[in-house]
Amino acid sequence: MSDNIKPIVVKIGGSTLGHADTSFQDLVSLQEQGRIPVVVHGGGPTVTDWMQRQGLVPSFIRGLRVTDGSGLEVVVAVLAGLVNKQLVAAIHALGGRAVGLSGVDGGVLQAAVADPELGYVGEIVSVDTDAVTALLAAGYIPVLAPVAANVAYDGADSSAMLNVNGDTAAGHLALALQAERLVFLTDVEGVLDSSGRLIARLTIREAGGLIASGTAAGGMIPKLEACITALERVSVARIVDGRAPGALLNALGDNGTGTWLAAQVMGTV
Question: CA-CA distance, 147 to 56, in Å (whole number)?
């Protein structure tokens, strides 16, 4: 990995997995161009499906999955196993080079229990990028599942692993890597105002205002919060409809659809 080229952190939402989009081909194209993408993926719908197969009832509080011991086993198996390997296989099938890992591997993501009411759900407290940068240096696209090591693990009543929000993981990883750009590929056209109209550009302050006012709701909240986190060291973040052809490549240009977020008013970044 060249010291002069910064990574591009791409969050692929679980809601877009399986759609006939061009995300994987876009990733391979970036790799062929000498760019260095890093993927963080979700997989919530698949986790829910497998929980139900096991007779478990999914439950959410403030948009976060309540994760007990049995639920955590499903989360880890599905995200770090099935979904992660599906993504890696798809990239290889298109001629790319990728390696799948979770936030536990190499201690990339380290977290602490965020709220006992949520169970084994973590809040990220530190990021170690060594494993990710080693893969980039070797010419691979790292594909990261959002499972973290528990910093408070004591071998007794706590779990060694925690479920973490994929959007949050992407924001923290982009910050730690000082990425060139953070891109969220989701299943909506971008950030919407109170009238349901697309907001093309936002600053950190404006994004925070949307959260505080309740205009941003559900899964858009962690995406905006992740952008706010990353923009401390990342110049631009994009939230775009990943189902559109060429969505990722378009998000790396100066135009494209979706919502463009920057630390300051555009033109002064």
Answer: 20
User: Is the separation of the CB atoms in 101 and 142 below 8 Å?
Assistant: yes
DSSP bridge pairs for 98: 141
Positive or negative, the CA dihedral 164, 166, 167, 171 is positive
CATH topology of domain 8-262: Carbamate kinase (3.40.1160)
Domain boundaries, the chain: 8-262
Q: Which pTM value belongs to this model?
A: 0.93
Residues 6+ apart with CB under 8 A from 13: 41, 42, 166, 184, 185, 186, 187, 219, 242
Q: What span, in angstroms and rounded, lies between the C-alpha atoms of 57 and 86?
A: 25
Confidence band (pLDDT; 50, 70, 90) for 267?
very low
Q: What are phi and psi of 23, to 5 degrees?
A: -60, -45
pLDDT at residue 265 greater than cutoff 60: no
Which residues, at least 6 apart from 160, have a Cβ–Cβ distance to it below 8 Å? Answer: 104, 149, 150, 153
Q: E strands, 128-225, where?
A: 141-145, 147-150, 161-163, 181-186, 201-203
Strand 122-127 to strand 181-186: parallel, antiparallel, or no bridges (unpaired)?
unpaired
Q: Which residue(s) pair with 5 in the sheet?
A: none
Q: Which amino acid is at 148?
A: A
What is the C-alpha separation between 34 and 37, in angstroms, rounded? 10
Q: What is the mean pLDDT of residues 85-111?
A: 97
